[in-house]
## 1
Amino acid sequence: MTTSFNSWLKKCLFFAILALPVAMLAQSAKAEKILNKADLYYQANDKIRSQELYLEVLELDENNFRASYQLGKINKFFKNYREAARYFRKASEIDPDREPEVFLQIGLTYKILGNYRKAKEAFEDFKKRNKDPNSEEFKRAELEIEGCNLADSLLKRKPNWQGKSASFNSA
């Protein structure tokens, strides 16, 4: 009985291993279909519905670059900057070489959040990946770095004004 059970178990494992890629392909196809639908909603400027669909894609495929990147853009549009940074970062971790623009978006988002150190790092990453120094994006990244340096230096200065308490008389 043990021998027949082992034989049965081996057959089950064999078929399970064969079925796994098929199931993964089906899930991937479903995610791709939802992703395309989300893109259509995004292009139609229906950010809420596209956001819902991109989140659904990430439930099926947590390493989907496009869904993560688009969620970063949507959250930035809605001024949810921390979420935007999180999704842009996720996209950059999934495939750092796919879209250099993601690093520019990370930098811009961190700059809005006032994290100039992380913003500069992201702008530098963008410049490393976008090798065309004549491109508008490259020039913008350089200007953004200068802006971060200026903001940092201004924040380090002591104010040259003093506050005084005011007294209000009723007479």
Note: Helices lie at 2-43, 47-60, 65-77, 81-94, 101-112, 116-129, 136-156.
## 2
Amino acid sequence: MEKKSDVNRRKFMEIGIYTITGAIAAVSGVALARFAVGTSLEKEKSKWIELDSEDVQDAEEGFARVVLEYEQKDGWLTAANRSLVYVKRVKENEVIAISAACSHLGCIVTWDEEQKIFKCPCHDGRYDAEGRVISGPPPVPLRRHKTKIEDGTILLATETVPYGDDTHEPA
């Protein structure tokens, strides 16, 4: 009878040692994998880019075309990005910035000053002055860039947000 209990104790200890060793290996493996991957899976947060005051037109004058040039880090890759934005001053301390990328297929829209609409040349998509869809195939309004004014300097966020999510931070 005693031999059976010795075997059971031995088997119990063996299972316990394997379990503890396996847990240590799993935890160490997760920590090692996180270290090896590092920040490669994290996207860089949006940057604020300063605009020249001359680049921004008053509401009566329509939209100004502004090219944003910035570096964006995605994992280990850092790339130079360029994007076209339509910007106008609505009030003394409020600026709106609308992305020029059509929400249908990403074509570049143009501002028609006579009709006061944005037109997409690819599939005849049309947007009003706020970027909302008037006609054509675009499924959603044009995206916006967040804007803020600090000490008289106009700042635009590099990341776009859906229509309605853009916040204008007063001076």
Note: The helical segments are 2-37.
